[in-house]
Amino acid sequence: MGGAVTLAAVILLGLFAVWSGCRVFVVDSMVRASFSLMLSFFCTGGIALVLHADYLGAATVFMMAVEMMVMAIFMIMFMMNPAGLNPMVMVHQNRLSIAAGAAAFALLAGAVLLSDLPDRPVDPARDTTANLGTELLGPSMLIFETAGVTLLAAMVGAVVLSSHRGRFGDTDAGACPPGLTEGGPPAGRRPEEGGGHGHGGGNG
Amino acid sequence: MTPLVLALPVALLAGAWLGAWLDRLVPVLWGRPAQGPFGPLRDGAALLARPTATTEAPDRLTRWLAPGTYLALAAVGLSVIPMAPGLAPLDSSVGIVVWGACEALTVIAVFLHGWSPNAPFPLIGAYRYVAIGLPVMLPSMFVLIAAALPAESLSLVQVVEAQREVWNVLRQPMGLPLFLLVGLTLTLRGPFDFADGADIAGGTSGQESGPGRALWQLARLTMLTAFSAMAATAFLGGPLGPGLPGPAWLALKTAAVMAVTVGLGHTVARTTPSQMLHPLWVGALPLSFLHLALAGWVAL
Fold first, then answer.
1. 20 to 30 Å CA-CA from B285: which of A86, A196, B161, B212?
2. Do the Cβ atoms of A85 and B118 come within 8 Å?
3. Which residue in A82, A100, A83 sits closest to A91, CA to CA?
4. Average pLDDT of A167-191?
């Protein structure tokens, strides 16, 4: 009975994960895409919870919530589409993407079907959270720390990229909007020669 | 899951009413008349009777999903908190991580609430809230991990048990003040109300009226309840205490934390988001590192 309920929950969560994953490419905005992807990850966290990996499940929900929020903000920030509110197409390089997707699916499905999956039921009374902690800070410490430092480097990189001040002055110095016609003069008001209207700093 | 789950809606609604009344009692501090205990119910009924406002091309799904999620997060957050020693409605072995997930998802619920009306002020409120909410979540995690250290467990039942001798608020004196910052952020209050502030015409709620607005306010108040109960559990020993039964102690401590949170929300001024970012990253975050190191040293 318990096994059948677990199986049904895993199947339903898996189907919802695939559906919300597909929504990422169908919806028309960065925010909707980010949070669809988040729902998909939540389903995998839910599967971990159903399988009694309590810490992994809760931590997946918690990490994905923060990550997808940051991702949505960064995607909107680096996008030309103002404020991420205008509808936009979420796919590009269709042929390459389809080929890459099909190849990845075939590889992963093949790995699942061909490999000898373990079947070792864990005693429900066992403290899997403590086991996980011992593993991460023991035998797998090097992998864990490598991933951690890589992520830290990526975060520092992202902060540097989005910083207003840079080595060569402010990031918007000398920037101008694209032309209204192709190859035309930049749209909007142009800064006058000599720079600035008394703003000081000479970044006009 | 235990039958205690049935007590959750009662606790949430009672806490929401108390929080709303405390909000209306605050003028007493300045010697002005305060409203009676029926004030919140009257205001809530008036809010429900107002017509629903609509905007151009809103995101209809998230418009209702955002307040609903906020309310659900408060309920889930409260459900892992032990109401009597050793007895939580949802006895999770990783209760603190579940609460952390509720905190992180609150940022998303508030963001989507501001994003869904497709209007400028709500959107500004949403972006401002994310910019402040994310750096506030970081000290929150360190403070909660520190609270779990003496118990050597992520289960809140164990965290309460570990406070039988001495409460965490004495062992870890910086924990509760840092956690109050988190509470003000989670419930969009006072110095951390960057989402719904009056300076941007109501922010994420600026375009809302009627039942949707009422649901949002109710969700904020239930989150205040869940946060206060969490602070009381992690730092004030939760249901532990002499004489009275456990739930009564938890309710008293929750009410005390709630009163402090409401008071801070009404008495501390709000600065701009860009000015607030600096103390959060340069002050609160290193302070929480220090707090965690000290708590670990004490726990050893």
1. B161
2. yes
3. A100
4. 73
pTM: 0.84
What's the pLDDT at A200? Answer: 43
Is 90 exceeded by the pLDDT of residue B257?
yes
CA B101 to chain centre: 13
Quick one: three-class SS letters along chain A?
Answer: CHHHHHHHHHHHHHHHHHHHHHHHHHCCCHHHHHHHHHHHHHHHHHHHHHCCCHHHHHHHHHHHHHHHHHHHHHHHHCCCCHHHCCCCCCCCCHHHHHHHHHHHHHHHHHHHHHCCCCCCCCCCCCCHHHHHHHHHCCCCHHHHHHHHHHHHHHHHHHHHHHCCEECCEECCCCCCCCECCCCCCECCCCCCCCCCCCCCCCCC
Chain A residues with beta carbon closer than 8 angstroms to that of B97: 55, 58-59, 62
CATH number, domain A1-91: 1.20.120.1200
A66–B93 CB contact, under 8 Å = no
Asked if B77 and B70 count as a contact pair (C-beta separation under 8 A), the reply is no
pLDDT of residue A191: 59
Q: Which residues of B touch A36 (CB under 8 A)?
A: none
B130 in A contact zone (CB under 8 Å): yes
Tell me the chain A residues in contact with residue B115 when contact means C-beta distances shorter than 8 Å: 31
The partner residues of B84 in beta bridges, in order of sequence, read B87
Q: What is the CA radius of gyration of chain B?
A: 19
| Distance between CA atoms of residues A166 and A189, nearest Å | 25
| Residue closest to A82 by CA, chosen among A36, A30, A34 | A30
- Among B96, B99, B108, B111, pick the best mutation site for testing chain A contact (most A Cβ within 10 A): B108
What is the signed CA dihedral for A178, A180, A183, A188, rounded to 10 degrees?
A: -50
Structure token digits, residue B110 = 């508030």
Q: What is the pLDDT of residues B193-223, one digit of tens each?
A: 888 888 888 888 888 888 888 999 999 999 9
pLDDT at A161 over 60: yes
Q: Which residues of A touch B154 (CB under 8 A)?
A: 55, 129
Using a CB-CB cut-off of 8 Å, the residues of chain A touching B105 are 61, 65
Token pair of A169, please? Answer: 């002055």
What would the two tokens of residue A33 be?
A: 């895409």
Report which secondary-structure segment, H or E, holds B169: helix B168-171
Nearest-by-Cβ selection for B94 from A58, A72, A85: A58
Q: Does this complex have an ipTM over 0.90?
A: no
Cα of B266 to nearest chain A Cα, Å: 29
